[in-house]
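REQUEST ID: PR-0412
SUBMITTED BY: lab tech R.K.
PRIORITY: routine
TASK: structure prediction, single protein chain
INPUT:
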Amino acid sequence: MPKPEIYISTDVETDGPIPGPHSMLSLGSAAYLADKSLVNTFEVNLDLLDGASGHPDTMKWWKTQPDAWAACRTEPQPPDKAMHRYVSWIESLEGKPVFAAYPAGFDFLFVYWYLIRFVGRSPFSHSALDMKTLAMALLRKDYRNSTKRNMPKRWFDKLPHTHKALDDAIEQGAMLCNMLAELKSSR
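STATUS: complete
OUTPUT:
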């Protein structure tokens, strides 16, 4: 019997818009089966990249989020150690990993860059499932109108969105599973 897809809902917290000049501060992933079974979670805070610095606009925003900032700066690990742990965690899961994020364009950019830079490979290959694009297809709306504000309440569980990477990965993973259930029922 083939292994099921396992959706790795992922959220990152960063100190700027792109990796390299800026750092990924925190990485949280929640592994879900399509039936909304939460299989496992992963969370790590990362040391800053050598020579990188926070972007002024991002750092201004962080000043409005003191609890989330404190959480992502607690016990950071060197990026190479953190990303090797992440790959080991993914590979320990019983299923074919599918990276998923809202928006995938931002989170995958950081995760993929860090994986290639520090591990030399990505267990996700070159692909990521973008929840906003899936919403666009389900809602039959333009992409820019497929925001969380315009999504039906039935897609959201009562889970917090705290700007702490793991909290947000869990919340968005549950939303993805609700969207997948609706997609399946519409076939």
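NOTES: Helices lie at 56-62, 66-72, 79-92, 104-118, 131-139, 165-185.
REVIEWED BY: pending
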